[in-house]
Amino acid sequence: MRKKGTVIRWDSARAFGFIRSPDTVADIFFHIRDYGENRHPIEGTEVTFDEIHVGGKGPRALKVEPARNTVQEPRSLPEDPNAVILPRSPTAARSTPPQTTKRENQLLWATMGLMAFWLLLWLAGIALDRFSTIPVFSSLIILNLVTFYIYLYDKNAAEEGNWRISENQLHSLALLGGWPGAWFAQRAFHHKISKTSFQITYWATVALHLLGLLAWLIWPAFQTPVG
Q1: Among 160, 164, 205, 216, which residue's beta carbon has the most beta carbons within 10 A?
Q2: What totals of helices (H) and strands (E) does the chain contain, helices first?
Q3: 184-191 contacts at long range (C-beta below 8 A, 24 or more positions apart)
Q4: What are phi and psi of 62, to 5 degrees?
Q5: For 8-38, how does the pLDDT look when each residue is reduced to its tens digit (9 = 90+)?
Q6: How far is Cα 201 from Cα 192, in angstroms, rounded to an integer?
Q7: Model confidence over 92-116: pLDDT tens digits?
Q8: Could you tell me the domains of the chain?
Q9: Which stretch of DSSP H or E encloses residue 92?
Q10: Which parts of the chain are beta strand (E)?
Q11: Are 8 and 27 in contact (CB under 8 A)?
Q12: CA–CA separation, 161 vs 192, rounded Å?
């Protein structure tokens, strides 16, 4: 049976918040991925949700949705008797999401292109006998799986207040070649994608990794033959 409550707290930086419901004694935790809307929750919004209890922790809300016949407003403004209420422009209301989606699609295709170029460099290194096939691909798969898992661990640690993985360690994994796994983890868990400084450093490690790999491949061409 779905419950009703009100969002009493929302932490945009950490992407989680709490709901207060008359049917539950404790405040109920929920994460952005449990919120069935494209925008962030707003404090004071009435919502409906499913409640679960896992591992002896406090209650958690799943499938959180704004209650019907409610409007999300940050805060009400004083009424002005001389104000004229104009109808909302449908075009203006729908203009932002398509633009955002277009940028996201462009970033997605650019990233897929970088990953294809990255794989091409490794294949070129194998063809030029710069690398061994089995050790290289085994190491890359293991490194990216480990990176993906570490992001998952850090995300859970952030939600539960446990010991965190340092950002330097996350960037080191990306620099070594785990950046594809890091990219997929960031989007799968909605982790670190809204922190601008982290994203700038992350993409810098991607660029350094690709440049280092490219330099390793072409370096023999610049060596002067002996004799």
Answers
A1: 205
A2: 6, 5
A3: 184/148, 185/147, 185/148, 185/151, 185/152, 186/151, 188/148, 189/33, 189/151, 189/152, 189/155, 190/15, 190/32, 190/33, 190/155, 191/151, 191/154, 191/155, 191/158
A4: -120, 160
A5: 988 888 888 899 988 888 888 888 888 877 7
A6: 11
A7: 444 444 555 777 788 889 999 999 9
A8: 3-66 (2.40.50.140), 97-219 (no CATH)
A9: helix 90-93
A10: 3-11, 16-20, 28-31, 46-53, 59-66
A11: yes
A12: 16
Per-position b or e across 65-84, b if 16+ CB within 10 A of its CB: ebeeeeebeeeeeeeeeeee
Per-residue pLDDT of 145-201, as tens digits, reads: 999 999 999 989 888 878 889 999 999 999 999 999 999 999 998 888 888 999 999
Please give the Cα distance from 44 to 10 (Å, whole number): 10
pLDDT at 87: 56
Separation CA 125–CA 217 (nearest Å): 6
**Dihedrals φ, ψ of 46, to 5°?**
-80, 135
- Residues shown for the chain: 227
What is the CB-side half-sphere exposure of residue 152 using CA atoms within 13 A? 9
Token reading at 79? 């009424």
* 45 within 8 A of 56, measured Cβ to Cβ: no
